[in-house]
Amino acid sequence: MQKTSSSKGIIKVAFATNDGKNIDAHFGGAKQFHIYNISSDKSDLFSVINIEEKDTDETIAKLLGIDIVYFTNIGPTAAAKIINKGIFPIKYKDIVSLSAEIDKLKVMLGANPPPFIKKIIEKKRA
Questions:
Q1: Which of 34, 39, 44 is nearest to 5 (CA)?
Q2: 65 and 85 in contact (C-beta within 8 Å)?
Q3: pLDDT in tens, 57-82
Q4: CATH T-level fold of 2-125
């Protein structure tokens, strides 16, 4: 079943958020991560991970299986740790709407995704 899903180009994306509507949180200071399954034709809120304590290792453990994580900032040690777990980090300097970024990803998946997203999709097919 997972092979069928991944062959359609579905990626699992986490967004660091404090207000539930925007990418507005530092990786280490996020109150929540909203997890979406995103393909070129749809997006579904998969889950919401609540962060109780500032513990980088615990937060990363909760994000295992995620393909991409978005945030407004991240420390170098945390960045290295998520990359080592196979999670691609994306940092925005400004606050960005979750819905706008999801729409952007859907369009990107339906057109010509950048190499890092193609690599994620191919890895899931393997």
A1: 39
A2: no
A3: 999 999 999 999 999 999 999 999 99
A4: Nucleotidyltransferase; domain 5 (3.30.420)
d(CA 31, CA 18): 5
Give me the residue spans of the domains in the chain: 2-125
Task: Tell the residue number behind the tokens 């040690």, with chain if given.
Answer: 77
Task: Tell me the sheet residues that pair with 11.
Answer: 38
Rounded Cα gap, residues 11 and 2, in angstroms: 11
Compare 58 and 2 and report the one with higher pLDDT.
58
Say how far apart CA 113 and CA 37 lie, in whole Å: 16
Q: What's the CA gap between 51 and 36, in Å, rounded?
A: 17
Q: Cα 21 to chain center, whole Å?
A: 14
CB of 78 within 8 A of CB of 57?
Answer: no
Considering the entire predicted model, what is its pTM? 0.90
Residue that has been written with the tokens 């809120």 in this structure: 45
CB atoms within 10 A of CB 112: 8
Tokens 């404090």 sit at which residue? 18
**Token representation of residue 13:** 């994306």
